[in-house]
Automatic annotation (TrEMBL):
Alphabetic keyword roster: DNA recombination
Taxonomic source organism: Magallana gigas (Pacific oyster)
Name the record gives this protein: Tyr recombinase domain-containing protein
A GO biological process held by the record: DNA recombination
GO molecular function annotation: DNA binding
Domain of life the protein comes from: Eukaryota
């Protein structure tokens, strides 16, 4: 769902590293914050603006129907994984 200006997808490791740097710089404990939330937010936003579940699955590079757990359209959802 996220990509660099050249169109290449942003790898999870890049997001996780940058997120940890920012969290540390503002004085918070990075163990409480994960880049995984960006996948949830991006998948949910894509669904809200009209992308199909199949399109979101392709954009997020999900190989299974796990994408369904990332689309949060209700007011509050909790994953029990």
């Amino acid at each position: 769902l996220f990509q660099f200006l050249d169109g290449c997808p942003v790898p999870y490791s890049f997001v996780a590293k940058k997120l940890n740097e920012v969290i540390k710089n503002i004085g918070l404990d990075p163990k409480h914050y994960k880049g995984h939330s960006f996948r949830i937010g991006a998948a949910t936003h894509a669904s809200k603006v009209g992308f199909s579940e199949n399109a979101i699955q392709n954009m997020g590079r999900w190989k299974s129907d796990a994408v369904k757990r990332y689309i949060r359209l209700g007011s509050f959802n909790v994953a029990l994984d």
